[in-house]
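User: Please predict the structure of the protein below. I'd like the answer in structure-token form so I can feed it into my own downstream comparison script.

Assistant: Understood. Taking the following sequence of 80 residues as input:
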Amino acid sequence: MHWLKKARLLAELSQFELASRVGISQSLLSMMELGQREIEADEEQRLRRVMREAQRDQQQKHRNMIQRRKQPVIKRKIAA
């Protein structure tokens, strides 16, 4: 599996999402992942930056979810 596809999947991005964020077409990204087209240096920088940002977002969502689980549940009394 190509490094680009592995990184995209780890970032939990579809080809369309990643391509849109980087400013390229989904079909071009597909060709890159299949090794049918070379990745230019500037494209690689943009791809890596976008995937790092997406991974940070996923990690933050995960931390927030864990933090919410740790918070005590407050039960309110319902007036009768």
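That's the full token string. The longest helix spans residues 41-70.
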